[in-house]
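Record type: monomer structure entry
Structure origin: computed from sequence
Chain ID: A
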Amino acid sequence: RLPAAYSMRRVNRRFCFAYCVSLMCVAAVGLALSWYNRAPLVFHDTFFYFHDAHFGVVNKSRPTMYAPLMYALFGARIWVWLAVQSLAISFVLHELTFFFFRHRARRYLLITPGLCLLSLLTPINFESSYLMPDFSGALLLVLASIMLAGWRNLSLIRKTVYSFLSFLFASFHLSHFPMLLGLIAVAVLISFAGRRFGRDILFPAGILLAVVVVGLSLVSIQNRRYLNTWSPTPMRDLFLFARFYEAGPVKEYLEETCRSKTQDNDLMRSACRANEKLAPSQWSAQGILWTPRSPMRAFGNHVRKNQIAREVLSRAIRKYPFRFLTAFVSKSFEQFNHIGLEDAVLFRFKSNPEFTLVWLHRRIIGKTFEDEQHAILKRSRQEKWDLPVRYLNLLYLAVYYGGMVFLLLMMRRRGSNSEFVLYCSLIFAGLVLNAAVCGGLSALDGRYQLRVSWLPFCSAVLACLSLFGGTSRLREGKARLVS
């Protein structure tokens, strides 16, 4: 017989090899939509990310670490970016599987075909194929929920890796920081209410809180260097102005103030002039922020725009506080029930055939990457609007709502497991927080809720599979006592 140490090394080597093979298989299947498209799926913000990373500038509306880090590591090779994103999603999906199968660690790789099906039939497929930082929001919620729910069962290596990846994913998009803060608050409240408040929740909550502080500090330092401001969100006031103009309170306040001609300073007079020039087609957050002829673009740099937006917001909130609250709740609920691919892959330019991917690519980036990227985009189905968007939307809606129902049933089935119940509660809280931060404070967009829509279904399926194929730790202990 071989020595125990040697045989254990042999088992570990085989397990690591099987883990890597499973990781790559799930990642490859997750890219099926991009294989079908013959190119990565892109958004018009994708080109701005490429432009900012290549020329070493920071965009005031998206000052994140996603593009600088990816470009520094992999250059302009967009297929490599996509492969890294897909591998990251595959890794987190495997770790979520380990969270449910940790008492049978050597067996959980046997459900690799099931993970491949989850990657193929859920929005994971879209997020893996989409060249945007949206994929990182769901990964952050999964890792943070596992840390908060199962901290005492994680090894030191996993605690370190999860903490580092949480910091990395949080810095990929500014909306992740308030989401993470809200998730920490929910976990602490649930633990306190369930009388499980202790170091098992305080340690991971403290680490995730440090992730938020360090991440926002780095973004602030970056903005100070490139944008001459310490604010991590330089366009915050303008985004809130656009959101609540569409929701109603800001528009009502401006119409009342401008009609009565009670503007007492230059900022309010400028806001009234902009309000008069806004066409009905621009009475939305997207229209105010991004349409080329929006009157808000006539006020010069972002500092002036934010001053005007801040002045209007502060006065309108003091006058209509409850209207702002009801508008926030209403738009958050609307975002919670709104997922779709139209805004993500067809943009808002379908009515104008001139606005194609190649046109956007040349307009924003120029000829910097023309030879490689233009050739890829020209042969894509997305360029020809030839993607099965309608059928994918129906599939993703079924996965989203069916997953929430399935997860609630699993919570009832495993209600005695407080760790599992806490994890599921945090997943539901993450869905609500994502809708509140994106839909309630920014703009309504189907891709925002789509990025986290696969979490309930995948969690419920893996939790259900973990009930079969073996005994729980309690039953194993009883079997030993009987024997």
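Annotation 1: The chain is about 70% helix and 0% strand.
Annotation 2: The chain has a mean pLDDT of 81.
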